[in-house]
Design a protein that fits this description.
Strands 1-3-2 form a 3-stranded antiparallel β-sheet. The relative contact order is 0.15. It is globular, with a radius of gyration of 14 Å. The chain has about 90 residues and is α+β, with helices and mostly antiparallel strands. It contains 4 helices and 3 strands.
């Protein structure tokens, strides 16, 4: 069994998410942006766990943020035959 820690948004972070939503940013994008406030370099799995979003929701929001140039994706493959892990970070 693998043990992973789960983080939750603070009340202040939830308020910030709500402010971003009020100015027109989509909820899932707002959640990811606030997540990056504390963790500027993460995998999509980290984002999924840290934002309590499904992988498909993360992928859609990430694609939008990459198209806008707000974040970048980096392949961190290590050529040992394992599946490559992508890292995502703020630009």
């Amino acid at each position: 069994m693998r043990l992973e820690s789960v983080t939750f948004f603070t009340e202040e972070e939830e308020e910030f998410i709500n402010l971003l939503i009020k100015i027109g940013i989509k909820k899932n994008i707002a959640r990811i942006l606030v997540f990056f406030k504390n963790i500027p370099n993460a995998t999509s799995h980290d984002i999924e766990l840290g934002t309590d979003m499904r992988q498909s929701e993360v992928n859609i929001a990430m694609r939008h943020l990459i198209e806008k140039g707000w974040i970048r994706s980096r392949d961190s493959s290590n050529n040992n035959g394992s599946r490559p892990k992508g890292s995502i970070f703020l630009t």
